[in-house]
Design a protein that fits this description.
The complex is a heterotetramer, with two copies of chain A (446 residues) and two copies of chain B (185 residues). Chain A is 24% helix and 16% strand. Chain A has 13 helices and ten strands. Chain B is α+β, with helices and mostly antiparallel strands and 185 residues long. In chain B, the strands form three sheets. A three-stranded antiparallel beta sheet of chain B has the order 4-6-5. Classes of the chains: A alpha+beta (446), B alpha+beta (185).
């Protein structure tokens, strides 16, 4: 009984990945309702819809626009309406940082680009085929802004795919990325083997039946909320030098380094999962989307002798070893920023990392759960004093246990391999909602 | 959270009236501290008149559920449950007393799913003030639970801060040893 | 009493209204059954007005007592204690919730001696109806406890019927193993 | 602040052991108040007092008289007065049998000699230097009874010490007996090393300060209760054939049999305690009262490698491994009945055993505690499914663990070595109280 997705109204952003090698995120503030509406009105036609997915998209139409709660208010949404939005969204990520484990060096007081500021109202996301196209879009947007008064760019972030541009997404530590992606029920897409059942649209888009079997209540006005989603934004610096030094310190040979890197992640850098290839890398397996997700934990690896219980992918997707997995699925969009650090080069002090959006219909049940329980709970699955070795908060010393026969290996006091440098909770409206926000008047939309 | 890892050394903890020492925000409100007696609920609520027998009958239902599927409540990471009906004056009250390892804040949605699956609603819906829309509204459910949760002012654990999982692993190890010793004699 | 020795298999037990299945006489009255959640008390009594702070303060006293002498309560063979103050209307109630391995009937006199030694009287004497001669009259004390004991209608144990002593031995064994493994790596 | 014991009023029975090799217990029933009073009046002068202890006692003056609750009633004590006596005494041992673990083969429905009958009113206990003297007393008592109407002997039991009459008391299994005895504070006696502090008189005699620091309330009338004690009587058959067969079955050598016998008891048959002599018997130690009790468990033998946790003497007197031991002390009086079964002889089917009285001031706190917790609790001290191997109820199969390095020994399904054949709760009045009961009139006593 999957309701037909209103593809013409849903922004394309969470529906499909666009073939982009570059991107730019701009963080905006509106000085007045009028300024915000004017800016938005001009940009709505450029926002890609679900319908445009798969069609030729010649220029800057991979534009995505999302708003913080302050942003919705700054566009004239009144408090009574805002009060019907979930509390976590209203409070914003900075206020929820403690829950998320985004504290200490990662804390909102240290974020870059004014992201923790109440002045942050909107993000405009531009994905482009390449850096040249991205820069063209940026110029175009700058020109557009110069025609308007009262819209400020608080900060921006440029993103680029990392070499060797072989069609494989990698992040700075060298792991292959984008191997898992939930499939939305009703799109006709088939999940790759091991990726689980298609997930009901209501888990990502408001106004549809979710995995509870009913559509959750819509924030008001429904015109604003229907076909919308929530996004959690994270800018996560990757400390490549520290990561490589750690591998070297813990290992005597290159092979041992690679195995340790695989144990931290749960996959070899090629993407080959440890559960399927526990002893050595298998790049062919890593790249084969029909095989690389086709595994479970409960029977194949109950004690983590292959993939440690605390490995990143086992925390982020415990598969058959967690409850209600269908209600925890999220859609990730984003990419890498900062220059690659060449193998063997000393750390250059330049910030590099991943800046990504996590899309869902409930920040508290999906995104916050993952951060609170899977990433940062030190007693996750009866582990003792461990957090996600890659993305967990390691301001305090946490460990990592690598089950091994005859004797397990316990890594004491892991260094922080990543630090959160910014974040935000956003509402990603549908196209009609964008028009409503731009006009401030529901009647204009019919 | 720092814990005393000497699991054989009993520990008691006095707890302020609020139920926590420092306000730490969880996903669904202030988180309660992990004490030497792990996490726990003492939920007390008046039952709707005339529902006592239905509530008692549900005890038997849970007994049978666990008999058929001993791990039916595994997601709650329980140590112990005690469900009590007691009288205050002419009113009857229900107490849900649980000791578990998850802070509720973390596994709220799993708990609600589980309550649906095992029909704990049969009890909770008999309690005065329980939200009728609890199945679709996690926040309403959680609000009820929080409003009826009575924090302890003292908790004591003989083997403090040890999770049920750890205990079960240790017992399995001891059992293996014990049976080995029996076979060696 | 027959127990299921599969300590890793959770078990729930529904309990009749009386608190026991068959009337079995103990030294001081009917004995309550050992359940998957071992033995236990849920003693609920109204506190005398104005005594709340004294009762709360006693929580801190017990915390300190255990800190100084972790085995001060050993004779009670406890797993967990939870002491709760809660409101019903404008009255305040005290709940003594304990999970332990002794049936109370067996170690009553030891418990009373211990309550004297650790000054639990500080709390109990604040409860309405507590006998003033409890220190010299075990039966009066026991009568109060029995009258205020609220039997569970359901008890559940994740590691059913296992005594705290057995758990502590198992944890010590596991700890020894774990530290051995750490030293061998 | 020990109060002076009123030795002239207290029956001698619990104050000192008399040097007797024979005894006779007669179980009486009074057909009327008058009959009982008449019988008692004639016998009171023959009852030994505390004052007579240690003095020459030429004939039958080692007489002791005690009553069941029905016996007190049969002598005219009214229900209001009886209601002030403790419930357990009023109900009697048969009614409390389940609490005591005296069930199954040991159950009151199978007792000998009408002991479970409400018609049991009194026991008269005759201790004598030898069997000849005992038989003389018996005849004398029979003659006395023949002069009275309405006093029936329900049953009787003759007791004799076992050979070789070397001044050492032994029971039928061959263990030395009477090694431990509490010393009453205020008597000036010194406990033997390891026997603990003297115990306050109130633990045994009503009307005195007990170990709680106060005198417990006296049943009314105080004239009746003061200087009295409670007695629990037990007639316990010892299955000597089964015991010896078990030792043979479990052991290959005579030494192993002796060690096993010692492990069950906690002492070698000589009396030498395992804690002090774990590997072989030491008869000199066994017989030396200055040494044979001089040990503790907590430091010397915490895990029971010497004396098993569940051994008889470790259950009956856990010494420093139990709470409030001073409130659990009892005085035992009694002896063996039935002929010795010669070593090597097949079991002859003749009943033989121990018939003893346990004296205390609270049956529920002292005697019933010992039976309920120490003897028959299958989880005593975290043991699993074990009862006292000698005196515990073994109608269901219980085990016995003998801690041993490297591998413990677990004996599965111990046979019953003993069976209770009779029992009673009795009140042992003081001399003035006996006169009061005989007269029915307090005024006559002044």
């Amino acid at each position: 009984m999957a309701a037909q997705l209103d593809l013409g109204d849903i922004q394309h952003f969470l529906l499909a990945r666009t073939p982009a090698l570059a991107a730019r995120y701009e963080f905006l503030s509106f000085e007045s309702v009028a300024a915000g509406r004017a800016w938005l009105a001009g940009l709505v036609p450029k926002v890609g819809t679900g319908q445009s997915v798969g069609t030729a998209s010649p220029d800057a139409r991979w534009v995505t626009i999302a708003f913080t709660c302050n942003g919705l208010r700054s566009l004239g949404v009144d408090d009574a309406a805002l009060a019907t939005f979930p509390e976590e969204f209203r409070h914003g990520m900075a206020a929820r940082a403690e829950i998320l484990g985004i504290v200490g060096d990662s804390g909102p007081d240290r974020w870059f680009g004014d992201l923790a500021s109440p002045a942050l109202h909107a993000i405009v996301i531009l994905f482009a085929r390449d850096a040249g196209e991205r820069d063209r879009c940026e110029r175009q947007h700058r020109e557009y802004l110069s025609t308007l008064a009262g819209v400020d760019v608080l900060s921006a972030l440029n993103l680029e795919a990392l070499p060797p541009f072989d069609g494989v997404a990698r992040e700075h530590f060298g792991y292959r990325d984008r191997l898992s992606q939930p499939v939305i029920a009703g799109t006709g897409e088939q999940p790759t083997p091991g990726s689980g059942s298609p997930v009901k649209a209501g888990e990502f888009f408001l106004g549809y039946e979710d995995e509870s079997g009913a559509p959750p209540p819509l924030p008001r006005p429904e015109l604003l909320s229907r076909n919308g989603s929530y996004l959690a934004y994270l800018r996560m610096e990757e400390h490549v030098g520290a990561f490589r030094a750690f591998l070297r310190r813990q290992s005597e040979t290159r092979d041992q380094q690679e195995l340790l890197a695989a144990k931290l992640m749960g996959r070899w850098r090629s993407g080959a999962p440890l559960v399927l290839s526990p002893d050595k890398d298998d790049p062919a397996l890593g790249g084969d989307l029909q095989r690389t997700n086709d595994f479970l934990y409960k029977e194949a690896d109950p004690h983590g002798y292959r993939c440690p219980i605390g490995a990143h992918i086992r925390r982020m997707n415990p598969r058959d070893t967690a409850e209600n997995m269908q209600r925890r699925k999220m859609i990730r969009r984003g990419g890498t920023y900062g220059p690659a650090l060449p193998e063997g080069a000393p750390d250059d002090g330049v910030e590099r990392g991943i800046a990504a959006f996590i899309g869902c219909s409930s920040l508290i049940r999906q995104f916050e759960f993952a951060m609170n329980v899977w990433v940062n709970d030190p007693t996750f699955k009866d582990l003792d004093n461990e957090r996600d070795p890659i993305v967990g908060n390691h301001d305090d010393p946490f460990d990592m246990t690598i089950p091994k026969r005859p004797i397990r290996k316990r890594l004491r006091g892991l260094p922080a391999f990543t630090t959160i440098r910014g974040g935000a909770y956003l509402f990603l409206p549908g196209i009609r909602a964008l028009r409503f926000l731009a006009s401030g008047n529901a009647e204009q939309l019919s | 959270m720092a814990t005393d890892n000497d699991s054989g050394k009993p520990k008691a903890l006095a707890i302020p009236k609020e139920g926590y020492f420092a306000l730490q925000q969880g996903r669904y409100g202030p988180t309660y501290p992990r004490t030497p007696a792990c996490h726990g609920f003492t939920i007390i609520a008046k039952i709707k008149p005339g529902t006592e027998e239905e509530i008692r009958a549900y005890g038997t239902r849970i007994e049978k559920t666990i008999e058929a599927n001993p791990h039916a409540l595994a997601p709650l990471q329980l140590h112990y449950l005690r469900w009590v009906l007691f009288d205050i004056g002419s009113d009857k009250y229900f107490m849900y007393q649980g000791i578990f390892d998850t802070d509720f804040d973390k596994y709220t949605e799993d708990a609600i799913e589980l309550f649906k699956a095992t029909g704990v609603n049969t009890i909770f819906e008999k309690l005065e003030g329980f939200p009728t829309d609890w199945k679709t509204s996690a926040p309403a459910f959680i609000k009820f639970v929080r409003e009826h949760q009575c924090p302890s002012f003292l908790e004591y654990g003989e083997y403090p801060y040890v999770s049920a999982g750890e205990i079960k692993k240790a017992l399995a190890l001891k059992q293996a040893f014990s049976s080995m010793l029996d076979h060696m004699q």
